[in-house]
Amino acid sequence: MSKGFVSGLMTGICYFALQSGAYSQEQTDPQELGPIVVTASRSEQSLDEVTRSVAVVESEQIERSVADSVTEVLRDVPGIKIIDSNVAGMKRISIRGEESSRNVVLVDGQEISDHTSYGAVFLISPSDIERIEVVKGPGSVLHGSKAIGGVVNIITKKGADRAVQVEVGTAFDSSTDGITGFSSAAGTIDQWDYRFSASKSKHGDRETANGTLEGSAFENQSVTAYFGYTGDQHKLSIKAERFEQESEVYTDPADIGLVMRQFDMDLPKRDRSKIGLFYDFTDVNESIAKIHLDGYVQQIDRVALVDYELAPPRLGAPVMKRENETQSKLLTFGLNGQVDLTLFDNVLTSIGFQAVQDQLDKDSFSTGTNTISVPGPVIPVNIIERDKAKLTTLSAFLQNEWDLNDDLTLTAGGRYYFVVSENKGTAGDRDESDQAFVGALGLNYTGFENFALRAHVSQGYVYPTLLQSTLGSVFSPAGKIYGNADLDPETSVTAEIGARFDSGNLIVDASAFYTDAKDYITSVDCDAAVHGSKCTANSDIYVNIDAAKTWGLELAASYQFAELAVTPYANITLMRRQFSSGATNTFDTDTPLVSGRLGVMKSWAFDNGVEAYADLYSRFSSEHRQKDGSGIDEADGFATLNLAGGFSYDFDEKRRLKVHAAVENIFDQDYKPSVEELTAPGRAFKLSASVIF
């Protein structure tokens, strides 16, 4: 472990524990219950009562982060790693080592669908978010497929506590010369509430300690509209969203070898449009506590441009020049329903269903030339592929929660899946179906003062995406990656134990977990002798060959010295991940042994209505190593020193000014947070300000 890592770790003492809502430094009186969460059990429940490992990120934390994306808000949650695959504007997350495609991303309980091999992008503006709940470990019983790693549920802002409330704000990031503007108008009139919002963000190429990353710029913009009605028992709302994003793709010149003369990639379009409807009927009668229904129509439009030139690897082989464009439209129809029953004393029964249909239209165009020899004949190439695919997932779940006594709660549930995949296009017409059952079992004990114990065992289930099972990937220098209709779903089993202590001043939340996941889907060289005649030169195919075992410890702790208004905290993850591919086993899976954030926060409250805070912290990680077909990639361990602070001022009951600032990577270190993430920004100054009136 390097001296820089050790010294940075000793220097940095930290800020707050994102997990378990540890932003409690402003509390002086102990609380009996933690924050209320909904994602872990699909019903309102205290954080002290859940059987799962849950992290809660509140709106104040989101504002203070001055983040350019939702993923940056989640960076310090124990067990989470950021992945960008050289695209700064399209960051994803890994939960407990699982790839992004094995996590579910929800907005108000409705999924952001994705059928790439990379996983869902967080296509939403941070300024629209009220809070984020992260449930770690398989969530396939309550939240559908694609939840081996966990579930991220983004709860958006709704109305305000008066008839009209307007907010206008801006943010600046020196590492990209990035400018963000956002605004909203919200309010509540009688039983009706509403919210309109808009944002726009533009970031240039990233400045690192070692220079500029050419091709790392991105920009996005969004608009939303929400209307809601809340009666004595009924709540009805509708929300429309539009998010537009475009990103450049960074290519390291060192990665372009003798064979690859030139490679350029651009992602000029990743847009999401959605209309969602929500209905709740509470306290129906003595036996029915709640009825919930929601439905949505969502469309994600995607354009990818890939241009490259390949030199001949051997004498007589063609020089290939290609200009490739892939356009796709993913249209999703979703319907969710749930009934919470109180048929027996001390028993809550939740019965629900989910129906989701993804319709994917994909057009791929490849133009260019093959030059057999130099000089020699030039053969034009013009390839067009048009594909249509459909994936329909029907599922139903049942969960019982028994209060065995005043202190002990048992939760058990299961979900049945029926999946149908249909394809029409270049891969041929083929329909496939699958069915599966997954279960989960949990215990929670609160018999000790301010202390809760939990245990949970759950299964995960991920059905192959449409690209993996039928359509294949975009054109690339490696050739096409073919879909494989014979793929098996990915599955997993996770066991977890945890404890939470909350005395008001001291909060500690710890979890130990073990996951055994099988039938991972990856791509290998397409061998015609093994995979059939459709294999072509320089092509790959998706197959089930991989498995992974992951175990670790997540710790989040904070203590408030009430008289001093000082809160030191620790937020640490210890994790090991073993990856198996055929006869090969390796721990080189881009998973650091130790990572986290340590720091201390000081807050002030003045008589003139000003509240302020200062936060000194270190973000750190041991080395990352990742093994792939071409060898081992490494990212050294690091520790950075960072300083943040800000203040708010209430002009009166309706008007408020908020300012947040930060200096990140103070010592201007050159490092990569992980193998699958771009080099981090160098010393960066961030500033945001907003006015509410």
Question: What does this entry look like structurally?
Answer:
This protein has about 700 residues and is mostly beta strands. About 5% of the residues lie in helices and about 60% in strands. The strands form 6 sheets. It has a 22-stranded antiparallel beta barrel. It has a 5-stranded mixed sheet with strand order 3-8-9-6-7. A hairpin with an 8-residue loop joins strand 4 and strand 5. The radius of gyration is 25 Å and the shape is globular.
| Broad shape | globular
The helical percent reads: under 10%
Low-confidence stretches: 1-32
* Main beta sheet strand tally, sense and closure: 22 strands, antiparallel, barrel
Q: What's the average pLDDT?
A: 88
Radius of gyration, taken over Cα atoms and rounded to an integer in Å: 25 Å
Number of helices: 6
Distance between the termini: 51 Å
How big a fraction of the residues is strand?
over 45%
What is the β-strand count? 37
Structural class: mainly beta
Task: Write a concise keyword list for the protein shown above.
disordered N terminus; 22-stranded antiparallel β-barrel; 693 residues; globular; 6 helices
